[in-house]
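new request in #modeling-help
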Amino acid sequence: MLSPKTQAWLIMLLGASHKSGVLPIPKSLLHRIIFLSNCLAPLFEEIPDSARIVKYKRGPFYPIVQWHLDHLAVIGAIGVSDVTYNEDEFGVWMQARYSINQRTKQIIQTCREINYGRRLDDYLTEVAFSFASLNKRFWDEAVLLDKTYDAPGVSEGAFIDFSAQQQNLSLQAAEAFKTILPKEVVPSRKEELFLYVRFLEELTRKKRAA
Amino acid sequence: MTPSELQEWALREISSVTAGKSGETKGFLETVCLWLANWSAEKSLRTKTKVGYCALVLDADLVAVAPVGKFEARGFFKEDYTPNLGGSLYITDYALNRVHRLSAQCSDLEEIASLIEAQGLSARPSVVFDTDSQTLFIFETGFASKPIKIKLPGSLPAKFSYSNFMQMLDQIYKGSLRYPETLPAIWNDPGGYVPGREAERTIQGHVCELLKYQTQIHNYLAGTPVVIRERANNVGKADVVVVVGSTCIVAGEMKVLRQRHFSDQKPVPRSVSAAFNESWAKRGAKQASQYKDVEDAKEGVLLLYDMRNKDEDIPSVVALCASLKVHHKRYYLHNTGPNPKKA
């Protein structure tokens, strides 16, 4: 069950979210960013850690990742607060907020001592900041309009597998900005990432206005 | 969105993506500069704003917890270009999402610096902004460092042009390259006219970085200029290219003229001959001309950063630039500080 890669992924993502001012982050929002970071990983030549997900009524949610989050919180590697159990129209649901502590920072520092750790941390930092650059009012909804998650024909309960790049529509959309921009402007991978995430915000804004 | 609308949107957005790495000081400073530029654009539509010097200080750990003492949380600081910005101290994370404000009435740089020092934050990267004159002071490593000073425009210019580009370069030269006391460190031994190890690369990086700041924060209505460093094309790598939309405004080649080579071994390093400097500059002129053609740029320019012991043009280089129809601009880098008597 223990997967060091998944745990490092989560810890680094929380570290980057701390820098970008998104912490303490609600559970559902964290799963959204995790989903986004997996979809767009190939843009930075990273291999997605969790490239399979079931479209869930509450938005992107990984049960295995949640197990890891609980585990990390219990061993004190990350912080958890405001744990509540609520019942809404979808049923019973545990809500919590995650943050970092001194130990999280030490783990990130240790991970950054190897090349892979630095690369992964740099990528996850850019993902967290691209998300953090959005207007706060759209944080909850933007990822729901992701091109892979909201692809035509993908209904609730559907199994989404974006491990192959041709099935990863988010990646394709991000890379398509190369063709949209004038030939003189060649976007960097960071710019493609930011453009794609802000494009989701734009879609959300238009959807709300409609 | 139609394809042209999408392209317009993408160009607008891409210019607001920071060039520096996110989560690092440079990324933070760019984010703040862009935010202040947007604030400035909003100000031009307002009739009343609070006047004074404000400071945005980076401390992600401090703002991660609830505000203490006289600080108050500003939940929508990033989204709201508040008219009450002037005079106060703001502590923030790298992305302006969590912001704590200490309300104050600072009316000059000294007052805001004292306020920051009183909070024990003077070593933090900071940006000070005068809401009245709209002048920015960027302190990359805290208040002990020399600030980069940038003035935002009072009214919005319509279109970026070659003359704007040259104005920005002049400002960068006067602000940070003219004398050896200023940053970046391009001299190894200014007294002996010995440049630093990678003077050309250092100057290029410094100039392009400041150009990016300046072009982004000016809010050109007819499209934001995008500064590209070391742009690869069919004939080589253009040192600096500025494009607006699909139009290349300027392609430039930077060359450094030296009196001596760099050496950290010899007490008196080898000198550089006048003939070598001349051929080096001529090569630059030809490159500038080629880049202008291949990039289909409106203007081409040879930028010479002169570290020799004589402040004078090389006539054959000036003539070559004229014949190749590229601009010639030489910036003399003094090896001693400003001397009021000489001036």
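bot summary: Chain A touches chain B through 33 residues (CB under 8 Å).
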